[in-house]
Please model this.
Amino acid sequence: MYIPEFNRVRDHADTISFVQANPFAILVSAADSGPFATHIPILARVVDNQMVLHGHLAKANPHCSLLQSDQESLAIFHGPHAYISPRLYESRESVPTWNYAAVHVYGHTRTVTDTEHLLAETRDIIHAFDPSYYEQWNSLSDKFRHGMLKHIVGFEMVASRIEAKFKISQNRSKADQAEIIKSLAQSPDSAAAGIAALMEKQGLGV
Model:
């Protein structure tokens, strides 16, 4: 990913927080016919100061076999984004742009199909997105739950390389940044408002 130095995220904690806050990702692996992508939720944890990604795919997805190759895969995490109008800048001689935040995580993957691991993976997914459902899931028969697990393949990826980019008007003046934040914060578009919040969190415009 092209990252000008002023857009590079240098705080590893910010990168981890971003990935955990934006778990719906694009997993890309190399196939004979070219890149193959799957859109799935991917959870992240930190083990010995390394980011470890984990999730699962439908067993019928041909992506499963690609995760067993010796090649790296790429997980793309994307956050808020917004069009930035040049009318928000002090200088009239300005052009439109787009603000966004993204993190690319590279690594080799391993697939997992044993029942205990898949039960743990399912538990983690439920706790992350629908914790109130866990009691119901846990009360279902073993036959049903284990039957469902036969249709998925789990995976883990230890990050070997991470690229984190926040393109949020760091190259503009503080006055321009403040005007952008003010405008986007008032937008009914949650993605635009998200960029305003991220800019404020990163200390821009002040």
Summary: Helices lie at 12-21, 63-66, 115-129, 134-139, 142-149, 174-185, 190-201. The longest strand covers residues 97-112. Strands lie at 24-31, 34-41, 43-47, 50-58, 73-84, 97-112, 152-167.
